[in-house]
Amino acid sequence: MKKEKAVLSIQAAVMLCAAGMVLTGCGEKVETPGKTETAAAESTETEQDGQKPEDASAPADTTNSTASVGENVSDGADVNDTENADIDTAEKELTLQQARIRHYYGGILSQITAGWQLPDGELDTSTLEDGFGKMSDNRFAVTDIDGDGREELIIQYTNACMAGMFERIYDYDPGSGELKCEFLNFPALTYYSNGIIKAEWSHNQGRGESWPYTLYRYDAASDSYVEVGSVDSWDKALSETWYEGQPFPDELDTDGDGTLFTIWEAGEEEDPYAYEKIKYNQADVDEWLGGYLAGAPEDAKELSIDYQPLESKSYADFVPAYLRLLAEDANSTRTDTDADLGLLILRDDEEHYLNTAKRLLTEQYGLTMEQPEENFEEYTVGLLDGEERFSFTMLDSGDLCYMGEKVKDVTIFGIYPGISVDGAWEKLKAYGFYASPYGESENSLITGEGFNNVSISFDAEDGKVTTITVRPFCAFAG
Length: 478
Prior knowledge:
Helix content: 10-25%
Number of domains: 3
Oligomer: single chain
């Protein structure tokens, strides 16, 4: 009889992924549970006639390229000032890229926490459905775990049966828009600073107290982890004979501790559990493992991962942080942002954006607020000279509607009734909006699918916007 490694596997195909251990009496190892998708197009204030841009239907990386430090400058220019400007620009773009990646991860985390589903597969939710625990018992982390300079998303899912537990490493490339699963295994992992992962098996069905494990290393060429080799043990005290009845080889136990190990490298064709493979002492195992952790100028260090509970408040700022960066850039060419009702959704305060909008319109623009339906207190309209210009619906996250004619300098993400359709699309792209796959109309846009994104739609007539509706958005919230 041969022992089987209980290691999960996965195909990395995507469209839109340890700490304390306790041993059970059954020889199972479980872990005690304990840490986004649009792109902004370039900002423009010019309204254009014609068709909407072809790339407006999906996110894309529109980060501007950075001039190299030391690039030729015009006569009289200060070279140091130019270099400093290049450095500032590069830092800004790096910050924007990191925020964009986290924005995308916010969508994945929202899909898991609200939709109970992975972007590339199914979750074992039987434990959650039966009421034994909750989603926040699982954990996640966002960190550059493989050392490639870009943050990955680690999902550690333990609130499930043994077969349903896993730890996944997802990597999102904002340049290509590709999400891939770099690694999948049982959640009993030790990460090292040189890209090595020590993955303990979910079960120890062997004849040794030392827990078996497999080593993996990060391969930059494939942007994934590849298997290196595995270690298992045999304690004479547990069994004096091997699987086929062969006796414990005392003559090989040179350190006299009653334990021998088998070591096999990935790709070996011979049977890793062949009797003749059980020949290594602890010093041999230490040397083998040390060979993968040794390096210059220093040996690899075990990494401490900042895991967070898998719940919405743990990643609540991933989306707003990205959208605020886009808004900061888009607002740089505007002088009317104080009257932009859409930007109120991005504000980091406890007051509901609809209440702030109603107060702004009442105090500074002379609108009158009324509740036209006696039995529907959540619905309010804003009147100007007796004409309805705004409506507010305080259900779910809240809807704001802007209609009729433009009211002075009031806008929603830079657009207003009367602006051309093409001009509206161009302005909204600067704030990270793209065509919504969930929209019921042609002019329906979103900034992403996860919690704290924004949805905007508008009606049009003769190429001009007539009515605008904006609201906070999450595709996975019911």
